[in-house]
Design brief:
It is built from 6 helices and 5 strands, in the order H-E-H-H-E-H-H-E-E-E-H. By secondary structure, the protein is of the alpha/beta class. The chain is elongated, with a radius of gyration of 19 Å.
């Protein structure tokens, strides 16, 4: 809602999508939603994060309880990602970022799996962190300069990673139609 700055699905529909039918709604939460805090802040903020997701679900279902909602889970990061240290300054390793991701994904699964017309999209389970992110060439052997490895260098998906995510979205949406 532009006047309250609070998510309001009914306002959005009335303001921008008047007369349109809605069958599904995708809530794609990302690494920025859980990655910026340190370990303690994510644990302390978990209730608030859960309440924000619940607010989105409640707002959509207040408009129409038959709308099927897909909640996106966050893919883990790989140890080769150099962006972790610079993007998430409170973290010194991908393990700490992944701990927050795992805590958040677990919260999504535990709190929202049994709500009518809410489905969890296991994006992380269908994502290959070794090559699904934007990559760079890496030459680890100074004695064999032609030997090259390709390593992830970013937290954002590459074209291949985007295809994995799109494939997960497709199958999730397809399965919703069959239910």
């Amino acid at each position: 809602n532009t006047s309250t700055n609070i998510f309001d699905f009914s306002f959005f529909m009335a303001e921008y999508m008047s007369g349109e039918a809605v069958d599904g709604f995708i809530c794609a939460l990302g690494l920025n939603d859980v990655g910026w805090g340190d370990l303690g802040s994510v644990v302390n903020d978990m209730d608030s994060l859960r309440d924000k997701v619940l607010h989105i679900i409640t707002s959509v279902h207040s408009y129409d309880a038959n709308i099927k909602i897909l909640l996106y889970t966050i893919p883990n990061q790989s140890k080769e990602q150099t962006a972790i240290g610079t993007s998430f300054s409170n973290f010194s390793s991908y393990e700490k970022v992944n701990n927050n991701i795992d805590l958040f994904n677990e919260m999504i699964l535990l709190n929202f799996s049994d709500i009518l017309n809410v489905n969890i999209m296991a994006t992380g389970s269908n994502f290959d962190a070794r090559t699904g992110y934007i990559t760079e060439d890496y030459y680890p052997n100074k004695f064999e300069p032609t030997y090259k490895e390709i390593l992830p260098s970013d937290i954002h998906p590459s074209a291949e990673g985007a295809k994995w995510i799109a494939d997960t979205f497709y199958h999730s949406l397809y399965n919703l139609v069959l239910k």
